[in-house]
Design a protein that fits this description.
Elements (H helix, E strand, L loop, with lengths): L8 H6 L7 H15 L14 E2 L13 H20 L2 E2 L1 E4 L4 H11 L8 H26 L4 E7 L3 H16 L3 E11 L4 E2 L5 E17 L5 E6 L8 E6 L13 E4 L4 E7 L11 E5 L4 H9 L26 H14 L3 E14 L7 E10 L5 H10 L1 E3 L3 H10 L5 E2 L1 E2 L9 E4 L4 E4 L24 E2 L3 E2 L1 H5 L2 H7 L9 E7 L3 H16 L4 E7 L2 E3 L2 E2 L10 H8 L1 H8 L8 E2 L2 H23 L13 H22 L3 H30 L3 H21 L4 H16 L18 H24 L8 E5 L1 H8 L2 H8 L1 E6 L3 E4 L1
Parallel strand pairs: 1-2, 3-4, 9-11, 15-23, 22-23, 24-26, 27-28
Antiparallel strand pairs: 5-6, 5-14, 7-8, 7-10, 7-13, 9-12, 10-11, 14-16, 17-21, 18-19, 18-20, 24-25, 27-29
Helix pairs in contact: 2-20, 3-15, 9-10, 10-13, 14-15, 15-16, 16-18, 17-18, 17-19, 17-21, 18-19, 18-23, 19-20
This protein binds one RNA strand through strand 7, strand 8, strand 12, strand 13 and helix 10.
RNA sequence: GGGCUCAUAGUCUAGUGGCAAAACCGCUCGUUUACACCGAGCAGUCCGCGGUUCGAUCCCGCGUGAGCCCACCA
């Protein structure tokens, strides 16, 4: 016998040979899955019954963040369950097209896309993506996301570009795409048109100044309040409300714009609010969308002062060339010098900014491409209603968004990196020439086209498609990887709720416009991760990195945490939840050690079961039934908590304790019945748990169960089936009663400050005593009762 | 201003038309043939007010508070 080093107990604990080393195990298991291609799609096995998932392709624009790890875990629970149940198509892709990727490249390579030629920049993007994508994807693999990485798409690869351009051409031919000059939402930082869905609110401090306009001829003051004095040179009219008595006598006259030698008409318009500011509204081209509407309505000629790069043009006179903010400051200074400001106050107001860069947006008339959606709101809502939303209330968010649409879908971007718009324009005939399908993917800048009418060389379209114009085709792109063996509607679209208005909406739109189908039958919408109740964001500095969490707790623990909140609910990140997960994993590991310690040389075989064992198996059957139903309903959190409860309390705390005596001290059928039950119930438990904690369950499976089960991986084993048993409810009540009495006995021992092993004489009510009779030996052993009497409940210590 | 969601132990979350549950924390004990990363025990006006009901934490209405989305933002 080895001598125990008594003094150094702590070190001994660290070296516990049976401890579960999650870092080693998880990395080993991950490699095993990759090597054995456990999650690779076998095209020949895809069929009607295959559960197909329109996996979100994460944007290659940094690292996996905690929100990703949360929502991808949740979708992976469902994917893994379905894989065991019926087989899945769970493709993988990355979204590396368009502005987010461009911005990433600009940042990491310290370049400006607009300063480079298009082809140079694209080359740099593709090269950089090649470098960074494998590392980027690695985080998802470490998390145990079981998508098919071997057969992945990128939204900028040739195939995706081809499909995206094909979609553009089809919609153009259907008359659903149009090209129009229009004051559109413009980001002066990114220098591109953007879509309504890319707007975000931001609070900004601002100066609210009341300016002295003059009435022409009379030279009377006309006071107008504004936060945007730099738009004075763009002022084309002033509005007063027709009901506003104060200004009745000036309607129809002209107003003189301060600092600028411009006279503009004074018009009546309902949109002028009597209560706001001075009641006089200046109309600029363009301050906001309502300016654009108003100018249109009154047929006023706009005077554009902003260049696409956010500087002022020649109409701004001496302010030409200044950036918006600079001009604002200078104009305010000059106004003050000439005593043209009557009042000024500091306010904070909410402005629209571009979600990618936080820059305040402007309205600049440019020629852009649009997909018609405004005339189809009703149909698009109807399409949304055909989909099962999990949770249901997320459907409402979709409907609200569609109802609130104000613009057609703006799909062109004045950028370099993206899917090119496959069009040419003959400036003579005003003819649009569209690429042919066999030419796709195509870059019009690299290919000369002649106008079919006048035969002159047409101008290639320089703009690219918005990244959503491509990612809205992820079902079709994924299908093309598997010879279209799976087509829409897919079974499931998982995603988070922030992109209902973009990804979900645009995908529904495209599938409707192209095929008049919904893209999926179900969608599961994940919530967000918060920290102390607040949304995590880099600017607040309250970001938790999943990579750090993975290092200290492991994937299974992180996933266990992600399974803790119900679908659609936000979850507050708390480290203690990771601790809980890790403890649970340890518990499983230790319980497994116990089971197999007692199953040496055991081969599973049917035996006549002892009553206690039968009760446990019945209870387990109920667990299988419930867990299955929960997973069917996307209620992974209920599945988690029920499995957890069963495993820890029914199985480990109670059953294992009860059965110990029989395992240690008996032989023959009594022992075999216990062994059979331990083996089978643990096997079932780890299978039920496999979708949520794929690593430890695989490790246990490989180590102990594989040799009898013969399937390569637990994750492609068949999902456990609940056996039909008679009187299940009765049996479960019986089981619970036994546990409840046991618990009361333990309570008494605790109260008396006695050991659990203290021997007792137990007195039970008649009914309870009868219940115990069936499992008498086991029960006496676990409670250390020497005798069980009938009467009022009592525990006597010997 | 409109829509949606949430409100349960000190904290964070489950859950249910009829004894309200787990985890973390704290306290009191126990324990060494799986596990001290253990076992047993101790915690709540289930936001307020009305209604439906034999019975409401749960269903309905109103209110309060928080979050998210949208709109407004001279």
């Amino acid at each position: 016998m080895a001598q125990k080093p008594v003094q150094d107990k702590s070190k001994e604990k660290e070296k516990n040979p049976n401890a579960y080393e999650f870092i080693e195990v998880e990395s080993k298991i991950k490699n095993f899955w990759e090597k054995e291609k456990i999650y690779s799609t076998d095209i020949s096995k895809l069929n009607k019954n295959t559960y197909s998932i329109d996996t979100p392709p994460p944007t290659v624009s940094g690292k996996m963040h905690i929100g990703h790890s949360f929502s991808y875990s949740q979708q992976d629970f469902i994917a893994r369950y379905r894989r065991m149940k019926q087989g899945v198509f769970y493709p993988w892709g990355t979204d590396d097209n368009g502005l987010p990727t461009e911005r990433l490249i600009e940042k990491t390579k310290n370049v400006k896309s607009k300063d480079m030629t298009r082809s140079e920049f694209i080359k740099l993007c593709l090269k950089t993506l090649k470098e960074i994508t494998p590392d980027f994807v690695e985080d998802w693999k470490k998390l145990g996301i079981s998508a098919d990485y071997d057969n992945a798409y990128s939204t900028i690869d040739d195939n995706s570009r081809k499909l995206s351009q094909k979609s553009f051409i089809e919609l153009f031919k259907k008359g659903l795409v149009y090209n129009k000059e229009f004051p559109t939402i413009w980001c002066p930082e990114c220098q591109t048109a953007i879509a309504q869905a890319e707007l975000e609110d931001k609070e900004h401090p601002s100066l609210f100044s009341t300016l002295r306009f003059k009435i022409a001829k009379t030279n009377d003051d006309l006071l107008i309040a504004t936060t945007r004095p730099e738009l004075l040179p763009a002022c084309v009219a002033v509005f007063v409300n027709p009901k506003d008595k104060r200004y009745k006598n000036i309607v129809g006259k002209k107003a003189k714009v301060p600092l600028f030698d411009i006279e503009v008409p004074i018009l009546t318009d309902e949109s002028a609010d009597i209560e706001k500011g001075t009641g006089v509204l200046m109309i600029c081209s363009y301050g906001d969308r309502f300016d654009a509407d108003a100018i249109n309505r009154h047929k006023i000629t706009p005077r554009i002062v902003l260049n696409p790069n956010g500087t002022l043009n020649q109409h701004a006179g001496k302010y030409q060339g200044m950036k918006i903010k600079e001009a604002r400051k200078q104009i305010l200074f000059d106004l003050k010098e000439e005593d043209l400001i009557t009042e000024q106050k500091q306010i904070t107001h909410v402005v629209n900014v571009h979600d990618k860069c936080g820059t305040e947006i402007e309205f600049i008339p440019t020629k852009q491409w649009f997909i018609k959606v405004l005339d189809k709101k009703k149909e698009l809502i109807k399409q949304g209603q055909k989909i099962n939303w999990h949770p249901e209330f997320m459907k409402k968010r979709y409907e609200n968004w569609v109802e609130g649409l104000e613009w057609d879908w703006s799909i062109s971007r004045d950028r370099h990196f993206g899917v090119s718009i496959p069009a040419w324009h003959c400036e003579k005939c005003n003819e649009i020439i569209i690429a042919e399908e066999k030419e796709l993917p195509i870059d019009p800048m690299q290919k000369e086209k002649k106008c079919p009418r006048c035969k002159s060389v047409a101008k290639p379209e320089e703009k690219v498609l918005d990244t959503w114009a491509t990612s809205s085709l992820t079902p079709q792109i994924a299908s093309s990887l598997i010879k279209n063996k799976i087509t829409i509607p897919y079974s499931l679209r998982p995603q988070a709720h922030d992109i209902i208005r973009t990804w979900a909406f645009y995908t529904i739109t495209k599938s409707y416009l192209h095929e008049n189908k919904t893209p999926w039958n179900n969608t599961m919408i994940s919530g967000f991760v918060t920290l102390g109740g607040e949304k995590m964001s880099k600017s607040k500095g309250n970001v938790i990195q999943p990579q750090t969490v993975l290092e200290s707790y492991g994937s299974d623990a992180l996933r266990f945490w992600a399974a803790g909140s119900k679908l659609g609910e936000d979850l507050d990140y708390q480290e203690k939840d990771l601790v809980t997960g890790k403890k649970f994993i340890t518990k499983i590991w230790n319980a497994t050690n116990f089971v197999f310690m007692n199953l040496e040389k055991y081969t599973p075989k049917k035996v006549k079961l002892e009553k206690m064992d039968e009760l446990l198996i019945n209870k387990l059957n109920s667990l299988v039934k419930n867990t299955t139903e929960y997973f069917e309903d996307y209620e992974y959190s209920k599945a988690r908590s029920e499995i957890e409860k069963f495993f820890w309390h029914d199985f480990a705390d109670n059953y294992v304790e009860i059965v110990k005596n029989r395992v240690y001290n008996s032989s023959g059928q009594k022992k075999e019945s216990a062994q059979f039950t331990l083996y089978n119930s643990l096997n079932t438990i780890i299978k039920l748990l496999a979708p949520i904690m794929p690593f430890i369950t695989e490790e246990i499976y490989q180590k102990y169960f594989k040799k009898n089960e013969k399937v390569k991986s637990i994750h492609i084993c068949e999902w456990p089936q609940a056996e039909k048993t008679k009187d299940k409810e009765e049996s479960n009540k019986h089981f619970d009663l036994i546990c409840e009495i046991l618990s009361r006995v333990r309570q008494e021992k605790t109260k008396a400050q006695k050991s659990m092993k203290a021997e007792i004489i137990l007195t039970l009510e008649k009914k309870e005593k009868e219940a115990i009779e069936y499992v008498l030996e086991d029960f006496k052993a676990v409670t250390c009762s020497t005798e069980i009497k009938e009467g009022k409940f009592r525990v006597e210590f010997i």
